[in-house]
């Protein structure tokens, strides 16, 4: 049996095979050049460079969804803005949606350009502790389209990961396009040594969206990407005039919560459909600052509060902890968790 | 490849595009197809969204399989009248939750096969639903249709600036690939509260219309948000048939009619 890299395309002939880099499955694989060259085969030398570059970034979170328009970029921006409310944290957003970058507008950075420095590309900063990088910054006009096939997109993603100088960053939130294709494979592949903490999966309540999201969850399992949890966005609309709730996108099959339960992945929470969020995204302003008392902000803050838990413990440990807490009532919860937290944060 | 035989018997080809995801490309594609079918036309729907195919569920043909005939792949027909034909990658998957983890070149090969090997028969319209973006799938579809006189693209957007921004890029794509633009549909524009009948603009309003005006392309209409429409898509029901009196259905029917009139002229020229 010839050796296959973990994230190889389907029907990869294996890196040691005579057909390596030459078979039809190799087309578009970012390792094709390495495989097809006659040189002794080894891993992509850029992987080590990426690992080194991102060693100053503590946590890397991917925001994924099989379905488009469910709010990946909105959730990305809200998570990042929410985390950055803590002045002690340094937060970054990397937008790898090359063909439809929404992050620049959502963050109020349209028309900004990327600057080059001795240490690489500098992100564009929204706040002192919130930096952003997106393909949108490389375009000269808002009408410009990036009409690229996969390999070129992969090249740019690699450059983003290898050349952007994030300095010391606590959280890097990576926004992705919908689907399970080039961009997703590349991010996972290029970051294999730099370690991704996991993926936050965004969906809307309808089955039409959930069915794509199930595929995304299976994708994560296939490429061994841990799942931090599922967020249900646009769940319920509260009429601003009569305050009654309507289900614009009806959860006909039980919504995201049931899907998460069925697929055995954590459920992080529901976010209401609030037209003011869309408006803030259009204007590039911070929803947290504009409407600090809205129910959506409360939901986001709860989710943001839970994410570090999921990162620190991993889900298995968390389950164990829950069992422990249930079976040993002698331990008070606060005592137990505070010691665990101390242990982790000092480590 | 004998792209010739199978696509030649299709009179009109319309591509549904949008730079943004989740704006309702598949919704518009299915409802236009159903509306044209209701007018007595023979319609095909080709779903080239390989990573997230939604068409089969929306047309209630989720569990169907594709059969091979001597001329190629036989599309799936949702009803015995055989006036609506459907092709999607979902019919080729063993389990419906299986992800299609393919890079560009493999997706392109699949799409080329969809364009050449499906035995559509005599169709009045082939509606092609696409994933969001301006990448492999789109380039391959447009390349594949070249020489078969595609009627053009319908761009779908939602009213917010974030969506319209992506659709502007799609317009540039159409210009660069010389695909005519048949018009813009603004979907999810306004929601009428069922409790108090107050209309809220959940995703703002007017973005699609403004875009059409700015670039001097036809505006096809605003489709209001309607939970009944979402419900029909979930269950694979025909919304334009079941709720024909609702404002959303009327607009969708009108859009289909407009497209029919506009493309009929294209047919007579060629």
TrEMBL record, chain A:
Region of interest: Disordered: 1-25
Database matches in InterPro entries: Mrp/NBP35_ATP-bd, NUBP1/Nbp35, P-loop_NTPase, YlxH/NBP35
GO CC field: cytosol; nucleus
Binding site for ATP: 66-73
Protein keywords: 4Fe-4S, ATP-binding, Cytoplasm, Iron, Iron-sulfur, Metal-binding, Nucleotide-binding
GO biological process: iron-sulfur cluster assembly
SUPFAM superfamilies reported for this sequence: P-loop containing nucleoside triphosphate hydrolases
Cofactor note: Binds 4 [4Fe-4S] clusters per heterotetramer. Contains two stable clusters in the N-termini of NUBP1 and two labile, bridging clusters between subunits of the NUBP1-NUBP2 heterotetramer.
Subcellular location, principal: cytoplasm
Molecular function terms, GO-annotated: 4 iron, 4 sulfur cluster binding; ATP binding; ATP-dependent FeS chaperone activity; metal ion binding
Annotated compartments: Cytoplasm; Nucleus
Lineage top rank: taxon: Eukaryota
Cofactor(s) this protein requires: [4Fe-4S] cluster
Residues annotated to bind [4Fe-4S] cluster 2: 239, 242
Residues involved in [4Fe-4S] cluster 1 binding: 12, 26, 29, 35
Family assignment from sequence similarity: Belongs to the Mrp/NBP35 ATP-binding proteins family. NUBP1/NBP35 subfamily.
HAMAP family associated with the record: Mrp_NBP35, NUBP1
General function of this protein: Component of the cytosolic iron-sulfur (Fe/S) protein assembly (CIA) machinery. Required for maturation of extramitochondrial Fe-S proteins. The NUBP1-NUBP2 heterotetramer forms a Fe-S scaffold complex, mediating the de novo assembly of an Fe-S cluster and its transfer to target apoproteins. Implicated in the regulation of centrosome duplication. Negatively regulates cilium formation and structure.
Subunit structure of this chain's protein: Heterotetramer of 2 NUBP1 and 2 NUBP2 chains.
Name the record gives this protein: Cytosolic Fe-S cluster assembly factor NUBP1 homolog
Species annotation: Stichopus japonicus (Sea cucumber)
Automatic annotation (TrEMBL), chain B:
Recorded superkingdom: Eukaryota
Chain positions recorded as ATP binding sites: 19-26
PROSITE patterns associated with the record: MRP (PS01215)
GO molecular function annotations of the record: 4 iron, 4 sulfur cluster binding; ATP binding; ATP-dependent FeS chaperone activity; metal ion binding
Positions contributing to [4Fe-4S] cluster binding: 193, 196
Any one GO biological process: iron-sulfur cluster assembly
Pfam families from the UniProt entry: ParA (PF10609)
Cofactor binding, note field: Binds 4 [4Fe-4S] clusters per heterotetramer. Contains two stable clusters in the N-termini of NUBP1 and two labile, bridging clusters between subunits of the NUBP1-NUBP2 heterotetramer.
Keyword set, alphabetical order: 4Fe-4S, ATP-binding, Cytoplasm, Iron, Iron-sulfur, Metal-binding, Nucleotide-binding
InterPro entries, A to Z: Mrp-like_CS, Mrp/NBP35_ATP-bd, NUBP2/Cfd1_eukaryotes, P-loop_NTPase, YlxH/NBP35
Localization, UniProt: Cytoplasm, Cytoskeleton, Cilium axoneme; Cytoplasm, Cytoskeleton, Microtubule organizing center, Centrosome, Centriole
CC annotations in GO: axoneme; centriole; cytosol; nucleus
Cofactor dependence: [4Fe-4S] cluster
Family: Belongs to the Mrp/NBP35 ATP-binding proteins family. NUBP2/CFD1 subfamily.
Annotated function: Component of the cytosolic iron-sulfur (Fe/S) protein assembly (CIA) machinery. Required for maturation of extramitochondrial Fe-S proteins. The NUBP1-NUBP2 heterotetramer forms a Fe-S scaffold complex, mediating the de novo assembly of an Fe-S cluster and its transfer to target apoproteins. Negatively regulates cilium formation and structure.
Known partners and oligomeric status: Heterotetramer of 2 NUBP1 and 2 NUBP2 chains. Interacts with KIFC1. Interacts with NUBP1.
Protein name: Cytosolic Fe-S cluster assembly factor NUBP2 homolog
Organism from which the protein derives: Stichopus japonicus
């Amino acid at each position: 049996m010839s050796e296959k890299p973990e994230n190889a395309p389907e029907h990869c002939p294996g890196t040691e095979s005579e057909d390596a880099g030459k078979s039809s499955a190799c087309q578009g694989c970012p390792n094709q050049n390495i495989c097809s060259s006659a040189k002794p085969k080894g891993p992509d030398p850029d992987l080590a460079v990426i690992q080194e570059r991102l060693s100053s970034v503590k946590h890397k979170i991917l925001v994924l969804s099989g379905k488009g328009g469910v709010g990946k970029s909105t959730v990305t921006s809200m998570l990042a803005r929410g985390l950055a409310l803590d002045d002690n944290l340094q937060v970054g957003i990397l937008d790898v949606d090359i063909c439809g970058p929404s992050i620049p507008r959502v963050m109020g950075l349209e028309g900004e350009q990327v600057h080059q420095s001795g240490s690489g590309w500098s992100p564009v900063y929204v706040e002192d502790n919130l930096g952003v990088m997106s393909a949108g910054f490389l375009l000269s006009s808002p009408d410009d389209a990036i009409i690229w096939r996969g390999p070129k997109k992969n090249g740019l993603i690699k450059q983003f990961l290898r050349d952007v100088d994030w300095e010391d960053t606590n959280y890097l939130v990576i926004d992705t396009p919908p689907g399970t294709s080039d961009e997703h494979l590349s991010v996972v592949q290029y970051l294999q040594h730099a370690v991704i903490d996991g993926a936050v999966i965004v969906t809307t309540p309808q089955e039409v969206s959930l069915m794509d999201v199930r595929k995304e969850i299976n994708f994560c399992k296939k490429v061994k990407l841990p799942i931090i949890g599922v967020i249900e966005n646009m769940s319920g609309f509260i009429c601003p005039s009569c305050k009654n709730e309507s289900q614009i996108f009806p959860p006909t099959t039980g919504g995201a919560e049931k899907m998460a339960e069925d697929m055995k992945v954590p459920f992080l929470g529901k976010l209401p459909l609030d037209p003011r969020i869309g408006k803030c995204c259009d204007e590039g302003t911070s929803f947290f600052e504009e409407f600090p008392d809205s129910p959506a902000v409360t939901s986001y803050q709860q989710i943001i509060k839970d994410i570090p838990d999921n990162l620190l413990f991993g889900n298995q440990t968390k389950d164990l902890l829950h069992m422990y807490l249930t079976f040993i009532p002698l331990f008070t919860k606060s005592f137990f968790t505070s010691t665990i937290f101390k242990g982790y944060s000092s480590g | 490849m004998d792209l010739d035989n199978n696509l030649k018997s299709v009179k009109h080809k319309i591509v549904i595009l949008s730079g943004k995801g989740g704006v309702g490309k598949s919704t518009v594609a299915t409802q236009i197809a159903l509306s044209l079918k209701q007018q007595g036309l023979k319609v095909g729907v080709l779903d080239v969204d390989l990573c997230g195919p939604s068409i089969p569920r929306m047309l209630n043909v989720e569990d169907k399989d594709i059969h091979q005939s001597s001329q190629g792949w036989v599309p799936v027909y949702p009803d015995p009248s055989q006036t609506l034909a459907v092709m999607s990658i979902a019919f080729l998957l063993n389990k419906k939750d299986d992800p299609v983890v393919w890079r560009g070149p493999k997706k392109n090969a699949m799409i080329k096969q969809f364009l050449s090997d499906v035995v559509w028969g005599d169709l009045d319209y082939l509606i092609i639903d696409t994933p969001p973006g301006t990448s492999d799938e789109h380039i391959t579809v447009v390349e594949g249709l070249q020489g078969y006189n595609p009627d053009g693209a319908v761009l779908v957007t939602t009213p917010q600036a974030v969506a319209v921004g992506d659709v502007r890029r799609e317009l540039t794509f159409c210009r660069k690939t010389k695909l005519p633009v048949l018009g813009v549909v603004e979907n999810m524009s306004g929601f009428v509260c069922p409790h108090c009948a107050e209309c809220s603009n959940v995703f703002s309003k007017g973005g699609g219309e403004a875009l059409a005006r700015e670039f001097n392309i036809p505006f096809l209409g605003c489709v209001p948000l309607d939970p009944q429409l979402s419900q029909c898509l979930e269950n694979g029901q025909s919304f334009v048939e079941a709720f024909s009196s609702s404002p959303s259905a009327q607009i969708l029917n009108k859009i289909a009619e407009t497209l029919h009139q506009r493309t009929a002229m294209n047919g007579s020229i060629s």
